[in-house]
Amino acid sequence: MYTPAITGTGVFTPAQVITNAELVEAFNAYVDIYNAENAGPIAAGDLPAKDYSSEDFIVKSSGINQRYVLDKSGILDPHVMHPLLRQRSDDEPSQMAEMALDAANKALAAAGKTAADVDAVICAASNLERAYPAVAIEIQNLLNINGFAFDMNVACSSATFGIQAAADMIRSGSIRSALVVNPEICSAHLEWRDRDCHFIFGDVATATLIERAENATGPYFEIKSTRCATDFSNNIRNNNGFLRRSRPDGVADRRDMQFMQNGRKVFKEVLPMVADHIASHMNETGVEASDLKRLWLHQANKTMNDFIGKKVLGRTPETGEQPNILQDYANTSSAGSIIAFSKYSNDLEDGDIGLICSFGAGYSVGSVILQKHV
Prior knowledge:
By secondary structure, the chain is of the alpha+beta class.
């Protein structure tokens, strides 16, 4: 049996930013157009008028101030309201593979390793760009990695589930190391025309290199234990997949072909599930709340994270104990907890213990207990 460890992480951040002010201006312009075009049915009571959004509404609902996206021009065009991503030829790298490549190279550099040290690639994301061939195999090819690769999707929990799969393979001795990459083009499956969710998501890619601890060449985080759980629910769903495309005949798209959620039910049902999952995992591993130096939680909603942090620690988390990146990146699905870990882990000292947790559609929840070694 070998000991798996995280030896490097990397984050790809798109160059374009949409602030709440920009988003609200575009959304409200769309509302004006929609209400004007449907003035008759609205006046007759056959169709409800759409309401304006506001910066205060977004911040109070989520804690988000801005988001990074691959294309803001289409999103902010009230006549388009979705990213305009160029259709790439089959001879070009896919958008997701290109993002993952950047994050993977950063993770390898952080670990002091090269592609020759990697045996497997797991592309774990909430929406894959295509059904097949696997995006992971394309990333493997771009990195010139020998071995194997596969895609997996557990929505917002994909990264922690991917980490467990990689850690288990390393423990068994079947591989020496694996890259778990999480390219998330969340802007492509968000319904930007829906006031209740138009502010939630952003784009990003993360990568985590997991190796046998004995092969680490610098500081690393030993993976002490992992736990995953799922419980089916339809309260968060996407019935289509990757990207809604406009219809030339002008017929309205089916709303359920984009991201949908019943927010109140999700809040009520997911929070106790996550808190109980973490508490059980810590208890089984012999970790007390007082042992935890850092919580890297899924970045979906500030209120949810504040609740979970308080529940796990038994008190309000102190500054730095539960870092949030939500205000800058928005919800980036599976990548959120990894961004938080990547940006807020270097300061931990030898022997310090932390916990990564992600949760979301499925329902799904995954947790990883780590210990720093210098």
